[in-house]
């Protein structure tokens, strides 16, 4: 179930995609998927693997997968009521099975630990529900200036709860 903040974050991402279409995450990730279920640190997306995501044997490229895990962890964290814009400090990705060009997959990210140093997990599954990738992302929430810069780009105050 989506939360009010989660839905507002989705609108902020839509604004970001429209106003900054040339950024890595907008051009390569958000423009290629349907986002859903933003709530309490959770975010889900689904997409069909296309050739721009693949290596030479038409399997989803490990670099692309890693970018998905990183991006979804960050945006899932800001869907949390106390979430702020954060950056990755470390990441571990387990590549368990391949996704091939033309397959529909889903990615879901959610918190393992909250706070200013959250730990997020992201899981990529195929249509049958098989886990293809499991990633764990440790992050550091940005303070002051970073939150203000993000507010200007997204037209959304990720740090709104700390000001109440």
Chart the SSEs and their pairings:
Elements: H1 4-19, H2 24-28, E1 34-39, E2 42-48, H3 62-79, E3 86-95, E4 104-113, E5 119-126, E6 131-141, H4 144-154
Antiparallel strand pairs: 1-2, 2-4, 3-6, 4-5, 5-6
Features:
6-stranded antiparallel beta sheet, 32% strand, 164 residues, Thiol Ester Dehydrase, Chain A
Describe this structure in words.
The chain is an alpha+beta fold and 164 residues long. The protein has one domain: Thiol Ester Dehydrase, Chain A. 30% of the residues lie in helices and 32% in strands. The longest helix has 18 residues, at 62-79.
Quick description:
With 164 residues, this protein is α+β, with helices and mostly antiparallel strands. It has four helices and six strands, in the order ααββαββββα. The chain has one domain: Roll (Thiol Ester Dehydrase, Chain A).
CATH superfamily label: Hotdog Thioesterase
Low-confidence blocks of residues: none
The assigned structural class equals: alpha+beta
Mean pLDDT: 90
Strand order of the largest sheet: 1-2-4-5-6-3
CATH class: Alpha Beta
Order of helices and strands: HHEEHEEEEH
CATH fold group: Thiol Ester Dehydrase, Chain A
| Largest sheet features | 6 strands, antiparallel
